[in-house]
Structures are given as structure tokens and as C-alpha cells.
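Propose amino acids for all 337 sites.
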């Protein structure tokens, strides 16, 4: 089933969220796609507690606080989110664009707005021979449906928040072993304490070592070999789940025929349109002379982009510029009493 909207926004970080607000003021409806499992982009995924000091009127705000308040601000516009998926393909259509994602979602829109930061967050893969053979069958880099891991024997690799949090969560219904190169972790102290308590109760196993290879076993299981001190050890599991953090890649966007500058998308500074009509790029993903990679710059770009999107979404209407401070119409949209 193909859904239809005015604009598809690629990226649910702060700039993508604010774009919903600017577009919403112009009665432009949005769908947002992000390959993370939550909104907020880099601010929420990597730096939720990191203080930000250069948001206008906010002497200090954390990444998560900024995300939460942007969500509150765009609530009147009822944007639809498609998380845990990335845009794999775009095709020109009579309506505008057909956008297809990695999980089969299909959306038709008049415009596309790329607000994907420096690209898509993708997991850092386990660098061992023949790993591709086991990916998406026995090796997974994210938990998208935790029920598939219930009552299974799992090996989780990593020492950060994701590894510890999922170790604690999945141990409720599965046999979980955590492997890390040392017994010290980078995760939140509370998560570490919970894991250590579960280990002391025999509900979680811990292995100190580095994964070296994977081989097939019987009954669709795998044998994971790891180096512990000077010795090579083996453990048989149903699934291996490495959590080695995230990296940024431009991904399929690089194949959309857009003019690029050092792996960033070139735009004009009048409307932040790319070299392809009705495709826009705002935030850290774009480039133009004098570009500053600041959230506040992305907010400015979103405002100008929205004015140009109006022309594609409502070609027969004239856009009357209004201020939220004085327009009763805009205030009604925002639920101002």
C-alpha cells in the first residue's frame, strides 16, 4: 500500500523536526523517515545528556531536552514517523516522488527534504572473515523485534550502553552471554550495576575476550570462537548481536543524482534546493560557501526551504507570509489560547 503526503523528510534529528514545524505553518503535511529506532538523530542517540550552549534563548539544553521540546512544538501538525528504516530508492512520479524504504514502506510525496545530518547512522560491523554469510540470519546489529530472540541462546558483544541495556533486557526471557575485551564498560553506571547483579545471580554470563571467527553448527546455530588471554575458546549460540557503536554514511542518497561536494549535498542559499528540482537538503548534510555546521543554521535553512516547498505543494495558491506573534490563523494551528 502506498501512502501519500506532501513532503517526505529524511532524518528525524533536530533540523528535520523543526522542518515539520515550518512546513506545518504552511499547511504542508509531512512523513519523516529515520533509520534509528527513535527520533532526535545524533543529539538523542549519541549525546542525550550532552549540554548544548548555542540554541537561541536557551543558555543550556541537553540533546534529549531539545528533542523533547521540538516534538512538543510540532505536535499540532501530526507528522507520521517511519523509524527503523532507511530510504533505499526514490523514483520520479506524476505526483512528485515515490519513496521506498528498506522495510517495504512506500510513500508518494511532492517534495523530499534531506535532513540526515552527515548521513545515515549505520552500525559498525564485526570485522571477521565471512561475516556477510551470517548477517540477518544468525548475526544482527540491532534489535527490531525482540520476540524473535526469546528462549534463545544469545551472545551480545560490546561494552557500551546498547550492549549492556540489551543484555539486561533480553536476559528476562533468554540465555544471554555478554562478551567484551575487558571487564570495564563505557555504559551508564546503573546499567553496569544491573548487569553485574544479574551475573552474580547466574542470569547473565560474562566472557572476557575478542571474537575471532564464526562457523556453522547444527540446528541453525553458530559456533563463535574468541580469544581469551592466550587461548582460543568457543561458544555455541543461536544468535550473535554485536553492539560496536554507529558510524555515518551517505548511503543510498549518494545514488540519487544530486550534485555533491566532498560527500555533502550542494544547495543554493535562496531556497536550499539541490540540483534536482523539489529535492531539498538542510542541516549538516548540505554544503554551500560559508556553511556552518550548527543546529541554529539548520533551523534557518528549514524556514527558507519551507517557503519554496509551498510552491510545489500548492502551485495554484499564493503564499501569504505571516508571523506567529500576530497571526490568529497560525496561533489557531498551534493551539494558542
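Proposal:
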Amino acid at each position: 500500500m502506498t501512502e501519500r503526503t506532501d513532503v517526505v523528510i529524511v532524518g528525524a534529528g533536530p533540523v528535520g523536526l523543526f522542518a515539520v514545524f515550518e512546513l506545518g505553518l504552511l499547511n504542508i503535511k509531512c512523513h519523516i523517515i529515520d533509520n534509528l529506532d527513535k527520533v532526535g538523530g545524533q543529539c538523542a542517540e549519541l549525546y542525550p545528556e550532552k549540554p548544548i550552549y548555542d540554541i537561541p534563548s536557551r543558555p543550556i539544553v541537553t540533546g534529549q531536552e531539545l528533542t523533547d521540546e521540538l516534538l512538543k512544538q510540532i505536535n499540532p501538525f501530526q507528522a507520521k514517523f517511519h523509524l527503523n528504516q532507511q530510504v533505499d530508492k526514490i523514483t520520479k512520479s506524476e505526483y512528485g516522488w515515490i519513496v521506498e524504504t528498506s522495510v517495504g514502506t512506500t510513500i508518494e510525496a511532492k517534495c523530499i527534504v534531506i535532513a540526515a545530518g552527515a548521513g545515515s547512522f549505520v552500525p559498525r560491523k564485526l570485522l571477521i572473515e565471512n561475516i556477510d554469510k551470517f548477517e540477518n540470519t544468525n548475526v544482527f546489529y540491532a534489535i527490531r523485534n525482540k520476540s524473535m530472540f526469546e528462549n534463545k541462546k544469545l551472545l551480545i558483544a560490546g561494552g557500551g550502553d546498547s550492549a549492556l541495556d540489551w543484555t539486561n533486557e533480553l536476559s528476562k526471557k533468554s540465555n544471554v552471554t555478554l562478551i567484551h575485551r575487558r571487564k570495564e564498560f563505557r555504559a551508564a553506571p546503573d546499567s553496569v550495576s544491573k548487569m553485574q547483579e544479574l551475573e552474580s545471580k547466574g542470569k547473565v554470563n560474562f566472557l572476557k575476550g575478542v571474537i575471532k571467527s564464526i562457523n556453522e553448527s547444527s540446528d541453525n546455530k553458530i559456533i563463535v570462537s574468541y580469544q581469551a588471554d592466550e587461548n582460543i575458546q568457543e561458544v555455541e549460540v543461536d544468535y550473535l548481536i554485536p553492539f560496536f557503536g554507529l558510524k555515518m554514511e551517505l548511503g543510498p542518497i549518494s545514488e540519487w543524482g544530486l550534485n555533491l561536494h566532498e560527500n555533502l549535498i550542494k544547495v543554493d542559499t535562496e531556497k536550499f534546493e539541490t540540483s534536482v528540482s523539489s529535492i531539498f537538503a538542510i542541516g549538516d548534510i548540505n554544503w554551500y560557501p560559508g556553511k556552518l555546521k550548527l543546529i541554529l543554521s539548520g533551523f534557518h535553512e528549514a524556514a527558507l526551504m519551507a517557503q519554496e516547498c509551498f510552491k510545489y505543494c500548492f502551485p495554484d495558491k499564493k503564499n501569504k507570509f505571516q508571523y506567529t506573534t500576530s497571526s490568529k490563523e497560525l496561533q489557531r494551528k498551534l493551539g494558542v489560547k
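The helical segments are 14-24, 41-45, 63-74, 161-170, 189-200, 295-313, 328-333. The longest strand covers residues 210-216.
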